[in-house]
Amino acid sequence: QVQLVESGGGLVQAGGALRLSCAASGPTFSRSVMGWFRQAPGKEREFVARITWIGGVANYADSVKDRFTISRDNAKNTVYLQMNSLKPEDTAVYYCAAQQLGVNQYDYWGQGTQVTVSS
Length: 119
Known about the structure:
Elements: E1 3-7, E2 10-13, E3 18-25, E4 33-39, E5 46-52, E6 58-60, E7 68-73, E8 78-83, E9 92-99, E10 106-109, E11 113-118
Parallel strand pairs: 2-11
Antiparallel strand pairs: 1-3, 3-8, 4-5, 4-9, 5-6, 7-8, 9-10, 9-11
Protein backbone atom coordinates (compact mmCIF):
# COMPACT_ATOMS: atom_id res chain seq x y z
CA GLN A 1 0.00 0.00 0.00
CA VAL A 2 2.94 2.29 0.68
CA GLN A 3 5.95 2.59 -1.56
CA LEU A 4 9.06 4.50 -0.57
CA VAL A 5 11.90 5.44 -2.90
CA GLU A 6 15.05 7.12 -1.60
CA SER A 7 17.42 9.21 -3.66
CA GLY A 8 20.17 11.76 -3.22
CA GLY A 9 22.93 9.64 -1.76
CA GLY A 10 26.50 9.90 -2.92
CA LEU A 11 30.11 10.58 -2.02
CA VAL A 12 30.93 13.79 -0.17
CA GLN A 13 33.85 15.16 1.78
CA ALA A 14 33.76 15.65 5.53
CA GLY A 15 32.12 18.94 6.35
CA GLY A 16 30.03 18.84 3.23
CA ALA A 17 26.29 18.63 2.81
CA LEU A 18 23.84 16.33 1.13
CA ARG A 19 20.07 16.19 0.84
CA LEU A 20 18.24 12.90 0.70
CA SER A 21 14.74 12.55 -0.66
CA CYS A 22 12.08 9.95 -0.02
CA ALA A 23 9.20 9.84 -2.46
CA ALA A 24 6.19 8.23 -0.83
CA SER A 25 3.00 6.83 -2.28
CA GLY A 26 -0.13 5.51 -0.60
CA PRO A 27 -2.68 6.96 1.83
CA THR A 28 -1.39 9.46 4.32
CA PHE A 29 -2.85 7.46 7.21
CA SER A 30 -0.65 4.56 6.13
CA ARG A 31 2.40 6.76 6.50
CA SER A 32 1.47 8.87 9.48
CA VAL A 33 5.07 9.00 10.65
CA MET A 34 8.07 9.03 8.33
CA GLY A 35 11.52 8.17 9.52
CA TRP A 36 15.10 8.03 8.34
CA PHE A 37 17.36 5.22 9.49
CA ARG A 38 20.90 4.28 8.58
CA GLN A 39 23.03 1.19 8.70
CA ALA A 40 26.79 0.99 8.41
CA PRO A 41 28.58 -2.27 7.52
CA GLY A 42 28.73 -4.57 10.53
CA LYS A 43 26.46 -2.36 12.61
CA GLU A 44 22.80 -2.41 13.50
CA ARG A 45 20.35 -0.15 11.80
CA GLU A 46 19.92 3.03 13.82
CA PHE A 47 17.33 5.73 14.02
CA VAL A 48 18.27 9.08 12.52
CA ALA A 49 15.15 11.26 12.40
CA ARG A 50 11.38 11.13 12.16
CA ILE A 51 8.56 13.47 11.26
CA THR A 52 4.77 13.37 11.29
CA TRP A 53 2.90 14.14 8.09
CA ILE A 54 0.30 16.06 10.03
CA GLY A 55 1.84 18.78 12.12
CA GLY A 56 5.40 18.16 11.02
CA VAL A 57 6.63 17.24 14.49
CA ALA A 58 10.26 16.19 14.18
CA ASN A 59 12.64 14.20 16.35
CA TYR A 60 16.32 13.44 15.93
CA ALA A 61 18.97 11.11 17.19
CA ASP A 62 21.46 12.90 19.42
CA SER A 63 24.25 12.09 16.98
CA VAL A 64 22.69 14.22 14.24
CA LYS A 65 21.01 17.00 16.18
CA ASP A 66 21.99 20.47 14.95
CA ARG A 67 23.43 18.95 11.79
CA PHE A 68 20.54 17.15 10.09
CA THR A 69 17.09 18.49 9.35
CA ILE A 70 14.09 16.40 8.39
CA SER A 71 11.22 18.00 6.53
CA ARG A 72 8.31 17.04 4.35
CA ASP A 73 6.42 18.46 1.41
CA ASN A 74 2.86 17.19 1.77
CA ALA A 75 1.87 18.28 -1.73
CA LYS A 76 4.75 16.32 -3.25
CA ASN A 77 4.46 13.39 -0.83
CA THR A 78 8.15 13.68 -0.23
CA VAL A 79 10.28 13.61 2.90
CA TYR A 80 13.73 15.15 2.95
CA LEU A 81 16.79 14.78 5.10
CA GLN A 82 19.17 17.71 4.84
CA MET A 83 22.55 16.61 6.13
CA ASN A 84 25.10 19.28 6.94
CA SER A 85 28.56 19.15 8.48
CA LEU A 86 28.87 15.53 7.46
CA LYS A 87 31.34 13.31 9.26
CA PRO A 88 32.96 10.04 8.16
CA GLU A 89 30.90 8.26 10.82
CA ASP A 90 27.78 9.32 8.95
CA THR A 91 28.75 6.87 6.21
CA ALA A 92 25.96 4.33 5.87
CA VAL A 93 23.06 3.18 3.77
CA TYR A 94 20.17 5.48 4.57
CA TYR A 95 16.64 4.12 4.58
CA CYS A 96 13.30 5.83 4.53
CA ALA A 97 10.54 4.17 6.55
CA ALA A 98 6.87 4.72 7.35
CA GLN A 99 4.56 4.04 10.27
CA GLN A 100 0.83 3.62 9.96
CA LEU A 101 -1.47 5.77 12.05
CA GLY A 102 -1.76 4.27 15.52
CA VAL A 103 0.89 1.62 14.88
CA ASN A 104 4.14 2.03 16.76
CA GLN A 105 6.40 0.27 14.29
CA TYR A 106 7.80 0.86 10.85
CA ASP A 107 5.96 -1.36 8.39
CA TYR A 108 7.29 0.06 5.15
CA TRP A 109 10.85 0.58 4.01
CA GLY A 110 12.62 1.95 0.99
CA GLN A 111 15.50 0.25 -0.77
CA GLY A 112 18.11 2.54 0.73
CA THR A 113 20.61 5.01 -0.66
CA GLN A 114 24.34 4.99 0.02
CA VAL A 115 25.98 7.95 1.70
CA THR A 116 29.76 7.93 1.90
CA VAL A 117 31.68 10.67 3.68
CA SER A 118 35.42 10.85 3.08
CA SER A 119 37.87 12.39 5.52
